[in-house]
Amino acid sequence: MNKTIVFISKDAYWQKYRNDVLTKFTFYYDVNIFILTTHKLKNYIKPNDNLKYLVLGSGNKFFDLFVFPLRVINFILFQKPDQILVHGHISEPADILALLLGKIMKIGSTIWTHGYYCGKSSFLSRRIRDLLLVIYCKLSDSVIAFSKRGYENLISYSIDSRKISIAPNTLDTDDILKNKEKILKNLDRNELLKKYNVGSESKVILYCGRFSKRKNLHLLIKAFNVLKQNKDVYLFLVGNGETYEQNVNLANIYNNSRVVFFSSVYEKEILAKIFSLAHIFVIPSWAGLSIIEAFCYGLPVITDNSKYHPPEIEYLKEGFNGLFYEENNYMDLAVKINNLLDNEEMMKNLSENALLTIKNKANIQLMLKGFSKGLNINEKI
Known about the structure:
- The chain is 44% helix and 17% strand.
- By secondary structure, it is of the alpha/beta class.
- The chain folds into two domains: 3-170 and 363-375, Rossmann fold, CATH 3.40.50.2000; 173-360, Glycogen Phosphorylase B (Rossmann fold).
- Helix 8 crosses helix 12 (330-342).
């Protein structure tokens, strides 16, 4: 008999990777999931018979601080699910209220968490976040951590290790690898390069992700401006966001016709073709799940040595499957890219190890197993 889980996530309406991962989870495990979110679903979010979305927001960010939690509580009261799953965001009152209601109704509860705060913050802010995280974990019957670091951090806060599972955060790597294989079979690489006015012998540096301030994409554009002086190289930037226009303008200031901008791309076939043209994947800062997609295509990853990265940074190992450059130093970034482009043997080794990392550390099946353990869900027979 399928277990019913209510997952409270105000951002689920746009988070494609969660949709992909949970779709896979419902395929392999005996579970029905209701995702409670705040806004109309983006067109790339796909529900199915075992994964349903309910939009419980009001459409107004301020009102949703009150409306969304009340509607969540109402849903739990009437549906009486087997399990409540939350992120434990301090900015989401619905999470703590749902956990408290679960205690009263004797409904199992799980927090799915980084296990630590990844971003920059003041000492006081960090202490408050840590305290609230401990409260959430104490209220929950089980905890699913994104990574080993998160697991260890929770134990340091005296959270019972027996209630913590690790579900290594990743993408649907099975689907990405399958799609890659399908595209590469019929891909005319030179013809596709011509489409973007790129020569067949040119090297392509790729970034794919959100255009946000903490990604520091201006550093990559500045580094590329140095590289192009003596390298036959192109820069592909895929994505959209708050700094998109700013980065387009910066590339124009440098009169850089070899920077190719793509808006957000969600079609798997188009993404596979773009990734297949690249030689190196660069995330100037805040390297998260895009590491996984790059590794699936055997691309070495370069990012900064900042201590502020999402949990997926654990997959990146210096000299094994990627490189780190000095934080905020675009000249050092240019040097790292240049050295890698000049060293075919290193490029080959990093590429092979990137694929090995997916196979051994970051594949979707490992995440699903950790997830099923944390939620106590049986695999389909």
